[in-house]
From TrEMBL:
Domain ABC transporter, residue spans: 4-240
Keywords, in A-Z order: ATP-binding, Cell membrane, Ion transport, Iron, Iron transport, Membrane, Nucleotide-binding, Transport
SUPFAM superfamilies associated with the record: P-loop containing nucleoside triphosphate hydrolases
Compartments reported by the entry: Cell membrane
Name of this chain's protein: Iron-dicitrate ABC transporter ATP-binding protein
Single GO MF descriptor: ATP binding
Membrane topology of the entry: Peripheral membrane protein
Amino acid sequence: MTRLFTENVNVGYGDKTIVKDLHVEIPDQQITTIIGSNGCGKSTLLKAMTRIHSHQSGSIILDGESITQQNTKELARKLAILPQNPEGASGLTVGELVSYGRFPYQKGFGRLTKRDMEVIEWALDVTGTTEFKYQAVDSLSGGQRQRVWIAMSLAQETDMIFLDEPTTYLDMAHQLEVLELLQKLNQEEGRTIVMVLHDLNQAARFADYIVAMKDGEIVKAGSPEDVIQRDVLRDVFSIDADIGRDPRTDKPMCVTYNLWKGEQQNEEDSNHTASYASACS
């Protein structure tokens, strides 16, 4: 049984509909990545599924019940979201920020219990941020801050974690650091991870399931092998890509690509193939 899915969901801003009649299922205890060009509705879908942004029509179902009918604190115990540009950490230490993840469990005056403290320490430990506990969040590097925000999400003790472009503005080493951490959480903790990514090869390498979107609709959803295909990438991104295999993971990867030029591209490809065959004969 799929815990989270949408049925004929429409989401927009004002009179403009961004996500259109969309049906998507999120596989449990797997890593799902959502890919697509800028403005296609990736982040809007993520926000709708986590109730940050209301949907106009259709249904978003979690555990057999519409998310609009679920108590806010109860929902926050099931899913956590890390937005693209998290704010609100100015002046806080790492430990203080991570403690905010315990809000759904607090009662009365919101004092931290022994259990809260244990979970906070665990979240710091699993993300490798314990050494920063008493440092100001503002003093950390981009990769370190991102791990701290993930630690706060983990402190919510949710089965599902949503992340909107978690590798944005990070260098290659820190991108890999964050993605490997999420993969570890999925494999060792059984967390369901849903994230928006721009890098196709990162999406293919770390995802079990990929959702490719264009103009608010799903073009293709399935395994990396199903989605990282030349025709799919041509439709979604208007690129003509050469697809190979990652020598380390054996996952599909985009080796190189050009802008798609329609029928002109077909003619150029045919001429290139004929020239290559003639040279080899």
